[in-house]
UniProtKB/TrEMBL annotation:
<keyword id="KW-0862">Zinc</keyword>
<feature type="domain" description="FYVE-type">
    <location>
        <begin position="139"/>
        <end position="207"/>
    </location>
</feature>
<keyword id="KW-0479">Metal-binding</keyword>
<dbReference type="Pfam" id="PF01363">
    <property type="entry name" value="FYVE"/>
</dbReference>
<dbReference type="InterPro" id="IPR013083">
    <property type="entry name" value="Znf_RING/FYVE/PHD"/>
</dbReference>
<dbReference type="InterPro" id="IPR017455">
    <property type="entry name" value="Znf_FYVE-rel"/>
</dbReference>
<dbReference type="GO" id="GO:0008270">
    <property type="term" value="F:zinc ion binding"/>
</dbReference>
<protein>
    <recommendedName>
        <fullName>FYVE-type domain-containing protein</fullName>
    </recommendedName>
</protein>
<dbReference type="InterPro" id="IPR000306">
    <property type="entry name" value="Znf_FYVE"/>
</dbReference>
<keyword id="KW-0863">Zinc-finger</keyword>
<dbReference type="InterPro" id="IPR011011">
    <property type="entry name" value="Znf_FYVE_PHD"/>
</dbReference>
Length: 211
């Protein structure tokens, strides 16, 4: 029942977003829909966030149903660089699929929640701000947090210069240098599967531009 209600909520929301994107006069309506969605999915981000036990799941051996036309290219990362290799279609590793916990991460409740939040942000953001990357303020030019005005080490027991550098962060929404205590929130980034650090000031301002 929860899954069905979630699917219906998402489908209804995406229909509204599709009509709102590119139509400035519907920002208010889209923003209201986004708030309704935000309220509806409150708490869903934790659903299924505990990786299930897949150790007892049998590998999928029907290789003939898994083969795709054309060449198979394996992209991987080694020594900090991306590499790609051609994989023969008759390689034994392609003859079965072993389920791994990492394969399920994209289907957790939080993944769906953040994806919908990203679309909602796109629909309710002024088009001139869409895709805008803020200019980062140099951390060396910031003597204190731009949010609370306190020293960057206010919540740290260590006061060395090295820890001062580690305690300074840049907000991905406005680009200002902020302390760790004022940048605990995360925001969705367009064209990126990862969320980014956001200061409290931008987090509490619903009209903040997204990157």
């Amino acid at each position: 029942n929860t899954s069905r209600a979630w699917s219906e909520t998402v489908s209804s929301f995406f229909s509204g977003v599709t009509a709102a994107v590119g139509r400035p006069w519907r920002w208010a309506a889209a923003r209201a829909e986004a708030q309704v969605l935000d309220d509806a999915v409150e708490g869903l981000s934790s659903i299924h966030d505990v990786p299930p036990d897949v150790s007892q799941v049998e590998p999928y051996h029907h290789a003939s149903e898994l083969r795709v036309p054309g060449k198979v290219i394996h992209i991987y990362r080694r020594d900090g660089c991306n590499h790609c290799s051609y994989v023969p279609r008759d390689w034994s590793g392609l003859q079965e699929v072993q389920l791994q916990p990492g394969m399920l991460h994209d289907h957790f409740g939080r993944s769906y929640y953040m994806a919908v939040k990203q679309v909602a942000a796109l629909a309710t953001t002024d088009p001139k701000h869409r895709g805008r990357t803020p200019s980062w303020k140099p951390q060396s030019a910031s003597a204190s947090c731009s949010c609370c005005g306190s020293d960057f080490l206010w919540n740290s027991v260590l006061k060395s210069e090295a820890h001062r550098l580690l305690s300074r962060h840049n907000c991905y929404s406005c680009g200002n240098a902020v302390c760790d205590g004022c940048s605990k929130n995360r925001v969705s980034m367009l064209m990126s599967p990862e969320t980014a650090r956001c200061c409290d000031r931008c987090w509490l301002r619903p009209s903040h531009p997204i990157t």
